[in-house]
Design brief:
Elements (H helix, E strand, L loop, with lengths): L17 H5 L12 E5 H17 L3 E2 L9 H10 L4 E3 L2 H9 L4 E4 L6 H10 L6 E6 L2 H12 L9 E6 L12 H12 L4 E7 L11 H21 L8 E5 L5 H11 L6 E5 L11 H5 L17 E12 L2 E4 L14 E6 L7 E2 L4 E5 L4 E4 L11 E5 L12 E5 L5 E6 L3
Parallel strand pairs: 1-17, 2-9, 3-4, 4-5, 5-6, 6-7, 7-8, 8-9
Antiparallel strand pairs: 1-10, 10-11, 10-16, 11-15, 12-13, 12-16, 14-15, 17-18
Helix pairs in contact: 4-5, 5-6, 7-8, 8-9
């Protein structure tokens, strides 16, 4: 796909392929601001750390791909050892399958007739594995109606997990008894297969604390109990139990690990996705693999930074940058001012005491604090919180080596 001069990309690459551009040995300093970039060493470190953590606990790993919506990063996760990729919408599933991902879990209901029939058509390829969730008999009936129209063109039944939720929360059966009734109906379906149980502990447990960790643990224990109740309904095929976002995956692994011997043919699947690039906010405070108590070699590192230029300094302590809500993640909290330089690609100097105070659509306000030497034309390096909203604002993101050489381009598909 030819490159175009959009946002941060240099202006003289119009029509080049990614490979042709990278062959010119570009450097981050060649890019325009604002720019979002990925640090290759931190990315590689995070991939290794998380896969090693999963393997040590005997957990299957299907990281959530909605974090990046970047097939190149999905492939890196698969190459590191992930069994498949989890996604959130049928459109995301289509993107993954079209980019060569062969094992996909849709961590959601799917009741759209055209989407169901398109996905079912991919099941003719025996190498494709697909699993989705359901939380109602109405949902099962809609799936049956759509798939039933395919007749003999349906290569095999669709694997479906029964989702457990909680009263007042998001999707999922409200309790174990309701989930058992849904599973009984699912097990009787001629076009669907009861393939296990699913849930998301983050829907019931808030930000990390000992009290909230216990809430998460109790929910995951209910998942295991539901799995136990459904044992008579399963066929001889593979079944899975799945949970875990990016905050309580350690709790999930503990509960799953304790149950593993009781269910020897069950796959225990965890789905955290934010780990791949980590962040400077939400997950730096909440992840089990962050914080000073975690050894440095086992600790996740922030792998994504943004750089914006000071375009105005109307007051000694106020810098006005050329990046805003259309460029920077802000749904969790405002970006963090980390460092400044005399230009993109120049040495960084710390910005202690500086604070991003406000974002407009295209601009950020930075209270410089004691750093009054920052001048118009300087650039400021920004860290962000919540990786899921870092990537959706960028279609092409450079991957940068320690020396500033651009060694890759990551394309996103939102």
């Amino acid at each position: 796909m030819p490159l175009t001069s959009e946002k941060s990309l240099p202006a003289d690459l119009e029509g080049m392929t990614d490979e042709e551009f990278l062959a010119t040995r570009p450097r981050l300093g060649d890019f325009w601001t604002p720019v979002l970039y990925i640090e290759r060493e931190a990315l590689s470190h995070n991939l290794t750390v998380m896969q090693r953590w999963m393997d040590a606990r005997g957990m299957d790993f299907m990281p959530h791909g909605k974090t990046t919506m970047a097939p190149a990063l999905w492939q890196a996760q698969l190459d590191a050892g992930a069994r498949g990729i989890t996604l959130a919408t049928p459109g995301q599933v289509r993107t993954a399958l079209r980019h060569g991902v062969r094992t996909v879990m849709l961590a959601n209901e799917i009741v759209s007739r055209p989407a169901l029939q398109w996905i079912a058509g991919r099941l003719a390829d025996p190498a494709v594995g697909f699993t989705c969730w359901t939380d109602s008999i109405e949902g099962i009936e809609r799936m049956e109606s759509a798939l039933g129209e395919l007749g003999t063109d349906l290569a095999r039944p669709l694997d479906v997990l029964v989702e457990l939720g909680a009263p007042g929360k998001r999707t999922g059966a409200r309790d174990v008894e309701e989930a058992v009734a849904i599973a009984e109906r699912l097990a009787a379906s001629p076009v669907l297969r009861l393939a296990g149980v699913a849930g998301y502990e983050g829907a019931v447990a808030g930000r990390r604390s000992p009290e909230q960790a216990q809430v998460a643990r109790s929910f995951v224990e209910q998942l295991v109990e539901l799995h136990r109740r459904l044992a008579p309904l399963y066929d001889d095929g593979e079944v899975m139990v799945t949970a875990a976002g990016s905050v309580y995956f350690d709790v999930v692994a503990e509960v799953f690990g304790a149950a593993r011997e009781e269910f020897p043919r069950t796959r225990w699947v965890l789905r955290p996705g934010a780990y791949i690039v980590h962040d400077h906010g939400l997950y730096e405070r909440q992840s089990p693999l962050a914080g000073d108590e975690v050894p440095a070699e086992e600790r996740l590192r922030p792998a994504v930074h943004a750089v914006a230029q000071v375009v105005s300094k109307p007051e000694p302590h106020l810098a006005y940058l050329d990046a805003g809500r259309r460029d920077l993640a802000f749904d969790s909290e405002l970006p963090v001012a980390l460092a400044y330089a005399r230009g993109l690609g120049k040495p960084w100097h710390p910005l202690e005491g500086a604070e991003v105070t406000k974002l407009n659509d295209q601009h950020a306000y930075v209270d410089l604090g004691p750093n009054t030497g920052v001048a118009v034309g300087d650039v400021i390096q920004l860290g962000m919180s919540h990786p899921c909203t870092m990537f959706d604002k960028w279609r092409v993101i450079p991957v940068v080596d320690d020396d500033g050489t651009v060694v890759g381009l990551v394309r996103t598909y939102f």
